Amino acid sequence: MPAPNENRTSEAAMNRIVNPTSVEPSAPPNAAAGMTSLAALSPRPGLSTSSRLSLRVVKFAKQAGIVLAALALVAWLAMSVRAGLARNGIGFDMGFLRQAANFDISEGYIVTWKGIRSFTAADTNAEALLAGFYNTIKTAAVSIVLATVLGLLVGMARISHNWLVRQLSFGFVELARNTPMLIQLVFWYFAVVLQMPALTDASRWFGGILFSKQGLYVPTVALAEHASNGALWSLFAGTAFALAAFAARKVQRMGHLFLALSAAALVAAIALGFPLTVATPHVDGFLVVGGVAASPEFAALFLGLSVYTAAFIAEIVRGAILALPKGQWEAAAALGLSRRYAFRDVVIPQVFRVVLPAFGNQYISLAKTTSLGIAIGFSDLFNVYGTVANTSGRNLEGVIVVMLAYLVLSWTISFVVNLVNRRLLLAGASR
Fold first, then answer.
1. Torsion over CA: 223, 226, 229, 233 (sign)
2. CB 192 within 8 A of CB 300
């Protein structure tokens, strides 16, 4: 039978993990000293309701004045630029977006009423910019995923007990953080990607990934050749019911009902001949059949952005882990958790609630850094804008469109990160 002291130690350790901010009971403080009046908590004790309302009106008027002054400054600048262009016989016109592009893009897709198709020279300048914007979003999305995973692993390796692992991760972080991104990008393109073997001798990784100087080819999910409409609709229904079950997971009966319907629909899809298959890339002469192809420029930009951003994310993770109270590690050890399980179950969940806003800053910086793809010929938004500006002569109008596009992208990333962060904080507060 364990001693009473051991039981109290285990209870205290569990309490520390469940609620890191909790403290062990101590002598109760003086009740009079602990009392705080409502007047002391108010912003201006002693003020009447009308006085507080007047202060709020004054603060609102000041903020509104600042906003109006900023808008007036922007309007004045716009009118000055317009007048300067008019003196030189140049008008401000966004009609160039409707003109034919008359140039090709090495890689890029546009969305039409008939579906997704490749960009052609007969498309408009607006569609050309959209194709470049699609390449920017695609590069940013996949780079954010790899940078997060790699940065998390390197950040944990920075505080490893293994001397070799710790020094290697330290060298990686210092090298990546202290060399310019443009130089790293040129290195990945000319010294790594273009030095890969030719397509006929391409390296095959993990049984399905092909990497050559012609590009990167990865397996993908595609429709089966003889997929029936019934199987497709069953798969679609099963997916919809699965999403509904996840949304209604707090209502037990509804969640179970949707889950059962999803399983039934998936069984029907399998019985009718599952409509999806994995298309593995393979070399057929001088071409690659199957899978998804990524150009050498995209592969170099993807690797460069991921490695560069992962170094900064690793330092954020390392700082957050070291800032964690030492009692968390002691509590995990008292419960008999190994270092690996302490990382997984105790440290990482708490770290993510702290580092997510800093991650968001790195994600936004990564999305804007995709514009460096112009150095290696990648058809991102900024590269396509340069071509559009040269062919149409509309530099000012084009750069305004590009700035607004990057602004929307940054706002979107910020909104998603704040939304996830808010959900994590609410989940942590409810436990």
1. negative
2. yes
- Helices 381-392, 125-157: crossing angle, 10 deg rounding: 160
Residue 100 tokens read as 């034919």
Which residues does residue 204 pair with via DSSP β-bridges, in sequence order? 210
Contacts of residue 315, Cβ cutoff 8 Å, sequence gap at least 6: 155, 158, 173, 177
Residue listed under structure tokens 């804007």: 368
Q: What is the pLDDT along the chain (431 residues), one digit of tens a residue?
A: 444 444 444 444 444 444 444 444 444 444 444 444 444 444 455 567 777 777 888 888 889 889 999 999 988 887 887 787 777 777 777 788 888 888 888 887 887 777 778 888 888 888 899 999 999 999 999 999 999 999 999 998 998 888 999 999 999 999 999 999 999 999 999 998 888 887 777 777 776 778 777 778 887 777 777 777 787 888 888 888 888 877 776 666 777 787 888 888 888 888 877 777 777 777 776 677 777 778 889 989 999 999 999 999 999 999 888 888 888 778 888 888 877 788 777 887 788 788 888 999 999 999 999 999 999 989 899 999 999 988 888 888 888 999 999 999 999 999 999 988 888 776 655 55
